[in-house]
Sequence to fold (382 residues):
Amino acid sequence: MLLDIIEIKKKHRTTEKYKKKMLYPEKFQGIGISNAKDWKHPKLVSFDPKPFGDHDVDVEIEACGICGSDFHIAVGNWGPVPENQILGHEIIGRVVKVGSKCHTGVKIGDRVGVGAQALACFECERCKSDNEQYCTNDHVLTMWTPYKDGYISQGGFASHVRLHEHFAIQIPENIPSPLAAPLLCGGITVFSPLLRNGCGPGKRVGIVGIGGIGHMGILLAKAMGAEVYAFSRGHSKREDSMKLGADHYIAMLEDKGWTEQYSNALDLLVVCSSSLSKVNFDSIVKIMKIGGSIVSIAAPEVNEKLVLKPLGLMGVSISSSAIGSRKEIEQLLKLVSEKNVKIWVEKLPISEEGVSHAFTRMESGDVKYRFTLVDYDKKFHK
Fold:
């Protein structure tokens, strides 16, 4: 009873603290990329947020993960970079403003997570069936995407973010912000196909590509009760994969006879590698059960093509998947909270130097296995 009273008082103090912060500047600040040719030299900039809508919330940011897609956008792999673009879409922060028509229950002072999506139409069949991440009518990413009025969305390497309430999701108290942040894009991107394809006890699940997303794939598939097979090109990721919980490890370019050894083994294979062209689908299909599924969540350069032999996938389906719905994110956070899943994160201070350092190391593959930007209070909220 005493602990309950203490917890209620603590939440009340938090709410009152963030109500007082509603008088923040009209302009937000962030670490922006001026153009793709100068991505190693991000700069502190001020910017106008989009007009505040009746269903919007403002979130004062305290942590933000750095995703591979941030790097792809920064260096121009996915298209032109608007001047002073603020990246970042794995955001954790506190709500400091709530629109007059918000109805999800979000309140000032709530600690929420924001992933890669900031808006959907909420009226199409996809939105109504909890597939709003596939909305084609009014789909706006948290960054680098125009709203209908032409405003380009700005992401989480910033003091605040403004977006529709639907995409601000409460974070369980036992998940620290630096560990929660990468779940909002990388984590949900691998969790969604695991969930939709029945990952659980009695299932054999493969994860191809043991990097930022792949390492979360091992952790989550194991937490869901599956027998987990980790696939990488060589043996350098073996030790880490086994520590993460993999039951089997296959070095696809170095191990001999692995397609015969694991023939007809897998129910599900999730491809997390950065490039599809480097994945040997002719070999992988041999280890799939009839009726099994291969799901790609790879995010390669836009001009990369996937080539398959006409009859190479007989009895096996292949598909792709994108992020996840609000409902799935809530399920992911519940799993991580209850199973005490700990992703591998390196924390870096939010600053021009911090963002540049992270991108430079991502270019060389020197990440183990996710970066989260922290110390927002020192940079923006003094």
In short: Residues 53 and 99 are 6 Å apart (CA to CA). Residues 1-10 have pLDDT under 50 and may be disordered.
